[in-house]
Amino acid sequence: MKTPLTSEHPSVPTTLPHTNDTDWLEQLHDILSIPVTEEIQKYFHAENDLFSFFYTPFLQFTYQSMSDYFMTFKTDMALIERQSLLQSTLTAVHHRLFHLTHRTLISEMHIDKLTVGLNGSTPHERYMDFNHKFNKTSKSKNLFNIYPILGKIVVNETLRTINFVKKIIQYYMKDYLLLSDFFKEKDLRLTNLQLGVGDTHVNGQCVTILTFASGQKVVYKPRSLSIDKQFGEFIEWVNSKGFQPSLRIPIAIDRQTYGWYEFIPHQEATSEDEIERYYSRIGGYLAIAYLFGATDLHLDNLIACGEHPMLIDLETLFTNDLDCYDSAFPFPALARELTQSVFGTLMLPITIASGKLLDIDLSAVGGGKGVQSEKIKTWVIVNQKTDEMKLVEQPYVTESSQNKPTVNGKEANIGNYIPHVTDGFRKMYRLFLNEIDELMDHNGPIFAFESCQIRHVFRATHVYAKFLEASTHPDYLQEPTRRNKLFESFWNITSLMAPFKKIVPHEIAELENHDIPYFVLTCGGTIVKDGYGRDIADLFQSSCIERVTHRLQQLGSEDEARQIRYIKSSLATLTNGDWTPSHEKTPMSPASADREDGYFLREAQAIGDDILAQLIWEDDRHAAYLIGVSVGMNEAVTVSPLTPGIYDGTLGIVLFFDQLAQQTGETHYRHAADALLEGMFKQLKPELMPSSAYFGLGSLFYGLMVLGLQRSDSHIIQKAYEYLKHLEECVQHEETPDFVSGLSGVLYMLTKIYQLTNEPRVFEVAKTTASRLSVLLDSKQPDTVLTGLSHGAAGFALALLTYGTAANDEQLLKQGHSYLVYERNRFNKQENNWVDLRKGNAYQTFWCHGAPGIGISRLLLAQFYDDELLHEELNAALNKTISDGFGHNHSLCHGDFGNLDLLLLYAQYTNNPEPKELARKLAISSIDQAHTYGWKLGLNHSDQLQGMMLGVTGIGYQLLRHINPTVPSILALELPSSTLTEKELRIHDR
C-alpha cells in the first residue's frame, strides 16, 4: 500500500502550520531537566498513582507553567481560585498522559524484569523499584530514545492541554459579565475545570465543564454555537405554531469560535403525566431530527431533565450525504433507507446484523447503562502496582447514562409510552405539512440556518478512537513509518467511496496530531473545512438546506406511516423480550357458520398487500428488502434489515408471497418473492449463520427446497444444495440441541428431504448432524431437559426417531425413545397436559411449549413409529388444545394460529374432516376479533411484526393452509409435493 504522501494519493501537510517538527525535542529536554519541588506533591500522590515518578517532571512543568500564568493576573485574581484550578490542570494533564503512555510503561517494566532485573522480594516491591528508576532523568531519556514518537506525543499533549486550560480561563475572564447575566448572580469565582467531557479535536480541545464557587456550572464548547442559537429560535417557532407539549432546549451563548452552554443535570420526573409528556416531546424531536437529516443523536447527547428531553449537542443537527450508496454497498436502496429514515438520526435502536463494530444499543432513546458488548472490547489493567501488571481485554460495558427519564428512582418503561412517542412524532410531522409554505420560504425558519456551522461525521467517532488507542501501542512509537502504516488503512475505503480520496489525507493529518478528525461546513454551503481550517471542495452536490427543502417536498401520508412503523418497530425492541401479552386471554368460541375460501384469501391478501407497501426496492426493482423486528435464538429483540431465516426473516415472507401468488394468480406477489430473495442473497453471509432450521443455515436450505419444490424449479433446488457444505461445517460446532434453534430441527428437516430426494449428500450431512446431536444430548443433565417441541424432549424424540428409523440406527432409536419416556413421566392427567419445566409446574398450550407442539410431534411419529401410547398422547394434546388453546395472541409460535395447525395436520393425516371444520370456524372467530382489535402478535407492545412465527406473515400463511391443506406446514417442517423428476431433485454438479 502506498503512503498518503506518494504521488498516487493527494496529501496535506502532516506538520501543522503552527508547529515546528523539532521543537518538541528541545522542550522535552527542558521538561526533564526541571527540578521537582516538594510543592508538587500536594497535587500529585506519587506513591499512590501508577508509574507516578515518570509523570512527575511533566506535572512539575505544568505546575510551574500555570503558576507563572497566574502571576500575570492582577485585578482578575479575585475571579478564580488559583489552587483549585492548579489541581484541575494537573489532573487533566496526568489523565491524558496516562492514557498515552501506560501501555509502553507496562511493556518496559516487563522488559526490565527479564533483562536487567528488578529489586524486591514481592511483586509490589519490584514494581516500585521500576517506578523509582524514573527519579533519575536518564531513565526517561533512555525511554524516549527508544520511543521517540511517544516523546513527541507526550510533549505536545502536555503543552496543548496547558494552553487549552489557559484559553478557557482567558475566555471566562473576557465573558465574565455575560456569564453573570446568564446566572443572574455575581459570585462566579471559577473553582474547577472538568476536561475530557467528550472527544478531543483540533489540538486537544474538548468540551469542558466549569464549576463556580456557588456550585453553579456552565459548559464550555470549543466551537461556534450558532446552530444551537438558531435551533432555539426554531423551537420558539414550533411552539408558537401550537405544538404541545411545548419544547425547551438549553440556553446557548455563541461567541463565534467558542460558546457557553447551559449545564443540564439529570432530574427525576415527578409524576406519570410528566413521563407521558417527556415521550411526546421525544416524538416531536424525532420528527425534527428526521426532517433536518440529523445524525449522531446518541445516548450521550440526550439528558432527561424532568419532563423535558434535552438535546445537549447539536453539531450534527443537519448533515449532508456523499451519496456513494451504489458503489459502497451491494444493497444501495437498503443503505439509503437506513440513513435517510428516522433510523439515521441514531435516536432509535437499530441493529445491523452484519455489523462488525457495534452490537449494543447506543441510541438516545434506547441506550442505557450496564449493557455488555460481545464485539467491542476494552483494555483493563490487572495486578496493579506489581511487576505482574498487565492489560487484559474485557467486553465493553456501557457506563451510567442520563438519557432515561425516571420517577420515584425507577426508569420509566418506554414500552408503556410508545403511543406518546408516535403521537408526538405525528403532531410535529403534520405541523410541518401545515406550515410547509413558511418552511420553504427563503425568509422562513429553515433558511435561517444557512450560515450556521455544523459538523460532518464522515466516519463513526469510535473508529477514529480505536485507531488512536492502537497507535499508543509500543510497536507504533519507535519510528514514524510504523505509525504511518497503521493510519494508511484509512485509504481502503477509497476503492468503494471515491470522495474519500480527498478526505483521508486530512483524517491522517489530524490523527497523527493525536486528534479525532473534525470537519465542518455551513448549512447553506458545500465546502468542507478540516479541523485546522483547510478547505475540501467538491464533496457535496447540494447543501444541507437544499436537502431539507427536498425532504419537505417528500412529506406525506405514506412517508408518515412508514416512519411511524419504523418507530413502533424500534421501540418494541426495548421491551426486553417481553413475551407476556399485554391483554388478557380472550374467551373464544368457534364461529356459528363456515365461510367461503374467498373470505380467508381476502384476509391473506390484505396482509400481503400491507407487507408489499413496506418493501424497499432497488431502482431496477430486481431486489427488495424489509426492515423489521427480529427475535434472535437468544430471544434478544432487535430491529434491523430482516435476517434470512424462516422464523422472523425474509424466507418466511418469500414462502408466503409465493403461495399467495399461486392461490390468487397475481404475479406481483411472485415478483415480490423473487425480489426479496435477491435482496436476501445480496446481504447473505452464510459463514456467520447458526445451523437452525428456523433461524440459520438449516432454514436457508429448507426454505429454498420448499420454494423449489412448490415451483417445480430445479435451479432453486440446486441453489439450496450450495449451502449444504456450510451447514455440514456448522453442525459440527453447534452447541444447541433444540428443534427450533439447533440440531434437532436440522436433523428432522434433513431426514425428510433425504426421504424425498434420495440425495446421498443430504444423508451424509444428516448423519453428521445426528452424531453431533447425540453427543450433545448425552452431555446434558437428565433433569435439565425441558418438555415440548421447540426446546425440549418432544423435539429431540421426533428428530432422533425419524432419523434413526431412516438410517436403521438402533442406538439413536433407543436414545429417541428415552425422551418419549422422559416426557411421558411429566404428563399430568388432571391437567391433561405436560408440565412446562421452565416456570415451575405451569402448563402451556402453544406450539413452542405445551400440548399443541407435543401433539404435532406425536402425530408425525405415529406415521411410522410403532408405539401404542402415541395415539393416546395425541388425543390428549388435541383435546387440551381445543379446550384451552385459543384466545391468546394470533401468532404461530405461541398463539392461536399455531395451535390451529395441530387441528389441520390431524385432519390431513387421519382423513378426519371434523378438526379441519372446527379449525376454520375458530380461524373465522380470530379474524372477526382482528377486525375489531387488530391482530395480536407474538411479542408484547409490538403490532409491527412481519415475520412467520411471531408476526402477520404466519397468520396469512396459515389462512392459505385453511384454503389448501397441501400448503406445507412450517410448524411441522413439511415439504410440498413436486413434479420434478428424481434426477432433478438431486445434486447436478458433484
Automatic annotation (TrEMBL):
One of its GO terms (molecular function) is metal ion binding. The keyword Transcription regulation does not apply. GO terms for biological process: carbohydrate metabolic process; peptide modification. Zn(2+) binds at C848, C893, H894. The keyword Transmembrane does not apply. One of its GO terms (cellular component) is plasma membrane. Residues 147-520 form the Lantibiotic biosynthesis protein dehydration domain. SMART domains: LANC_like (SM01260). InterPro entries: 6hp_glycosidase-like_sf, LANC-like, Lant_dehyd, Lanti_2_LanM. Keywords: Metal-binding, Zinc. NCBIfam families: lanti_2_LanM (TIGR03897). This is Lantibiotic biosynthesis protein dehydration domain-containing protein. It comes from Halalkalibacterium halodurans (Bacillus halodurans).
